[in-house]
Hints:
- By secondary structure, the protein is of the alpha/beta class.
- It is 41% helix and 14% strand.
- The strands form two sheets. A seven-stranded parallel beta sheet has the order 3-2-1-4-5-6-7, with helices on both faces. Strands 10-9-8-11-12-13 form a six-stranded parallel beta sheet, with helices on both faces.
- Helix 9 packs across helix 14 (334-346) and helix 12 packs across helix 15 (348-362).
- The longest helix is centred in the last third of the chain and has 21 residues, at 367-387.
- The two termini are 31 Å apart.
- 44% of the residues are buried.
Amino acid sequence: xxxxxxxxxxxxxxxxxxxxxxxxxxxxxxxxxxxxxxxxxxxxxxxxxxxxxxxxxxxxxxxxxxxxxxxxxxxxxxxxxxxxxxxxxxxxxxxxxxxxxxxxxxxxxxxxxxxxxxxxxxxxxxxxxxxxxxxxxxxxxxxxxxxxxxxxxxxxxxxxxxxxxxxxxxxxxxxxxxxxxxxxxxxxxxxxxxxxxxxxxxxxxxxxxxxxxxxxxxxxxxxxxxxxxxxxxxxxxxxxxxxxxxxxxxxxxxxxxxxxxxxxxxxxxxxxxxxxxxxxxxxxxxxxxxxxxxxxxxxxxxxxxxxxxxxxxxxxxxxxxxxxxxxxxxxxxxxxxxxxxxxxxxxxxxxxxxxxxxxxxxxxxxxxxxxxxxxxxxxxxxxxxxxxxxxxxxxxxxxxxxxxxxx
Length: 407
């Protein structure tokens, strides 16, 4: 089977949730014996983007040699020519692929093969802070058009699946779940050298509260900050560490902390690497995720995998992800946030129980199973088209299973 993939998330320096999702899945396919042929497609103009970076493709093993095709260029970087045998592919030849998969919600218009795409969340429809923005409007338009062309729409959580079925009135069988996995770097095993480097670089104490994510509306840092101030007023001695991709001094959160004279209690960590973030989780007394909207909740999963106990918003997507392994609070109630933080901070037995439950829960999510599940769905999508020619099997029910694999 020839599987065409949207290569845009694989060749950019800007790494977000979609890019991590795509790269982890491709890395899993590259690590397995080759069963199918992979072809990478780029939309017009990508090679001229300032963020274009083929480093991930060049890191793949020699046994995995997808071809990178484009429809708008006459010259190619020498590394790609040598490494992947990249050639120009006319649009009319795209029909020879058995299936096309986009790691994001967008789909091209000219591909006639069955198409499958992944919608990571529907914040453009349900998050009031995103819905009324120009970006929210554009994303809604992309999703609504792409869903009509997709053979399957994939999601990363049961909650997002239910949202898509309800919002776009799709049959449930057309919307499948492929859960995110967890990067192997997120484990409880400490790195003493890195720990000391982080402590010296940022002035970290031994007890701190870790909050992961940029200062964007859905992170709900305004309410979390109010809850944290209440905890400090109750004599809780706990340093707060915010880790995200922001230039922190330019954020509203940083300005508020400065205005209230709290910068001595707060550490801002800009753009930590996965290794650094994993060590921050391991050394934290607890992690707090106060989001008002989450499609999956990767930071909660990462914290659990590192053995860090978690207090988080009582959202359906987070309950489905974490079960009884975290402490929940109402995200719009600073008092409830403060109470959850204090309960975990002062009760070591409670933290020990959540740590044990979290490690067990996180072990159910891995990229190997996610890559296998996605490949099966792509085979079924291609099989519907191939079956008309007498070569494939009709779609079965095996891809209907949406629960994460048992331990």
